[in-house]
Each structure stands twice: as structure tokens, then as C-alpha cells.
Structure prediction request, 80 residues.
Amino acid sequence: MAAKSSNFVQPAIPKSDGHYDHWSMLMENFLRSKEYWSLVENGIPAATEGIESTEAQQKAIADHKLKDLKVKNYLFQAID
Prediction:
């Protein structure tokens, strides 16, 4: 059975070309399309000190940390 081809095209990571204002708008749009922009705006939620966090809260924080690493990876690829 042949592999099914996809018609979905991955958006290219906007490369910085020295025009920051234009690049930042492209990068924001790119990160919004990946649903990572709220992480850029709000950061990773911190665990509440002194209160034991639930397994679900720990998983949510771990998921946010993974998304943070993905955003950093996109930025590193975009900037020479």
C-alpha cells in the first residue's frame, strides 16, 4: 500500500533579515499559527510554593516547558 501524500504545507520559519519590525510580525504570526504565542506573552506558569501540586498540574507545567523549548528552537533557527 502506497504512503498517503499530504496536501498540507508546513509554514516556513521566518528568517531574520535585519528588518526587525517586519520579522517580528512574521514571527508572531508563525508562533500564533503553532498556538505557542500565549506562552511568549505569559511565560511558563510556576508551581505554587508550599502547596503540593497535583499530577495534572505537574503535567501541564511539563507541557509548557516543552512548548517553551520548541519556541526557542524556532527562534534559534530564525536568527543567524
The chain is about 55% helix and 0% strand.
